[in-house]
Design brief:
By secondary structure, the protein is an alpha/beta fold. It has 13 helices and 19 strands. A hairpin with a 5-residue loop joins strand 5 and strand 6 (about 55). It binds adenosine-5'-triphosphate and magnesium ion (MG). Adenosine-5'-triphosphate (ATP) binds near residues 13, 197, 200 and 388. Adenosine-5'-triphosphate binds next to helix 5 and helix 9.
């Protein structure tokens, strides 16, 4: 029976499992259905205090948005390599480390893989390897700190080992996206991959061809890889700070007009992976005392509501929804409506673009770095492979393609190409 190998794309926002047969197998790479029929699992967990069950993906988002009592987590990948990794977090009666939390999520995905292994073997379709896996990694987990970046990879590896994977290899996410694209071309191309994810933006200049695809070692074909810790969740944060947090007290003063309110509460509330750190009695007290001093106490009362009702992720979700709406519309509202809090903060594409200009500039800078490290000019790039959900932001897409007037723009599967490429890489490495 043929062998099938798995690649796992643990994304900041979405995760996938790509499967590919070892060389000689007939089938192409495919994504495993990981939540119902869906090939993506939103990287979210919900620990219910009502029934004690941990939910994952859309089911986790649904329970939380529905207002169930419990603890919600998203963007855990952003914690890798940061000081938060050393902390534990309370989940009901337990205290868990972030490696354990990530492990819970990976264990859930591994369960899907195990079920597929049983099904595939029974159907005579092939033996799915459960010991080996290729994990994707961004080019940079952490900007400008190699030790922290290595620590991030080690933490992810520890989490994967903890759930039963024994033989773990890593591949850069943009290289994986290139390998998937390569499985569908017929001539040689010099390509630039632009992968704008939830947490990071990753780039790679690669030489691709059907002949080269057969080689075991591709190092010589990967001319450069660069990355920045800027992704869709940063666009959420900046939009929240520009258009939403002012409704919660950001930028307002004390009643005597002498002081501005501290900004970090608002920054953390706008940052997916930091929201839970605000849910402490000490911070609730701080906000109540700011409310007494504030020139606009009603705004701080709204902030206090977010803390009391654990509404931070619901608000962040509403910000993300508005951001996605601004991809197609000129205007959108950040809408949150729950007992005790009604918000409809209108915003425009223009305001969003003004606020996020710096993020787009940083993405453009990383593209320039990818070209110069590869020693090629923009004119030499024949194909720009666009992938990742964040590449749909109009200003990001414009910045990514502006440099490459002569190139073909290949819009690759935004949410699946990395996982599929990791599967291809696993089949090559382990097959
Ligand atoms: N139509 C859209 N317009 C703008 N942004 C979008 C759109 N659809 C999805 N996004 C954003 O794309 C991001 C998720 O992209 P993706 O699933 O590629 O990330 P990821 O692989 O989980 O993250 P990473 O690769 O950084 O770990 C989110 O920030 C989401 O809001
Ligand atoms: Mg990704």
């Amino acid at each position: 029976m043929s062998q099938i190998f798995a690649g796992l794309d643990f994304g900041t926002t979405n995760s996938t499992l790509g499967l590919a047969p070892a060389a000689g197998g007939n089938a192409g790479p495919r994504l495993l259905a990981v939540e119902g029929d869906a090939p993506t699992l939103p990287s979210a967990l919900f620990f219910s205090f009502e029934d004690g069950i941990t939910r994952f993906g859309r089911a986790a988002v649904f329970e939380y948005v529905d207002g169930a009592e419990g603890r919600f987590m998203r963007a855990l990948k952003s914690v890798l390599g940061s000081s938060l990794m050393e902390e534990t977090t309370r989940v009901g009666r337990e205290r868990l480390s972030f490696v354990e939390l990530i492990g819970r999520f990976l264990a859930h995905l591994r369960g899907k893989l195990e079920a597929e292994a049983m099904r595939s073997e029974a159907a005579g379709e092939g033996r799915v390897a459960l010991d080996q896996v290729v994990l994707g990694r961004p080019v940079r987990f952490v900007d400008g700190d190699d030790a922290a970046d290595q620590a991030a990879q080690d933490q992810l590896e520890a989490a994967a080992r903890g759930v039963g994977f024994a033989d773990i290899a890593f591949q850069f996410e943009p290289v994986a996206a290139a390998l998937y694209y390569e499985s569908r071309i017929s001539t040689e191309e010099l390509a630039l991959v632009v992968d704008i994810g939830g947490g990071t933006s990753d780039f790679s200049v690669v030489r691709l061809s059907p002949e080269r695809a057969r080689a075991k070692d591709r190092l010589a074909d990967i001319l450069s890889f660069t990355g920045v810790h800027v992704g869709g969740t940063d666009f959420d944060r900046v939009l929240s700070i520009a258009a939403v947090m002012p409704h919660f007290g950001l930028g307002s003063s004390t009643a005597d007009g002498k002081r501005r309110l501290p900004v970090w509460y608002f920054n953390d509330m706008a940052t997916w992976h930091r929201i839970n750190t605000l849910y402490t009695p000490a911070i609730a007290r701080d906000i109540r005392s700011l409310e007494r001093e504030a020139a606009e106490p009603e705004k701080l009362a709204r902030f206090a509501h977010l803390l009391e009702h654990r509404s931070g992720h619901r608000l962040a979700g509403a910000v993300e929804t508005a951001k996605i709406a601004l991809t197609d519309e000129a205007e959108a509202g950040v809408i949150l409506s729950e007992p005790g809090l009604k918000l409809d903060a209108r915003t425009t594409r223009e305001a969003f673009e003004a606020a996020t200009q710096d993020l787009v500039t940083r993405i453009g800078g990383a593209i320039d770095a990818a070209l110069s490290e590869a020693g090629v000019t923009a004119e030499a790039i024949e194909t720009v492979i666009l992938t990742g959900g964040g590449a749909q932001v109009p200003a990001v897409k414009a910045a990514a393609v502006a440099r490459f007037a002569g190139a073909k723009i290949a819009q690759s599967d935004a949410f699946g190409s990395v996982g599929l490429g990791l599967g291809i890489d696993a089949a090559r490495k382990f097959g």
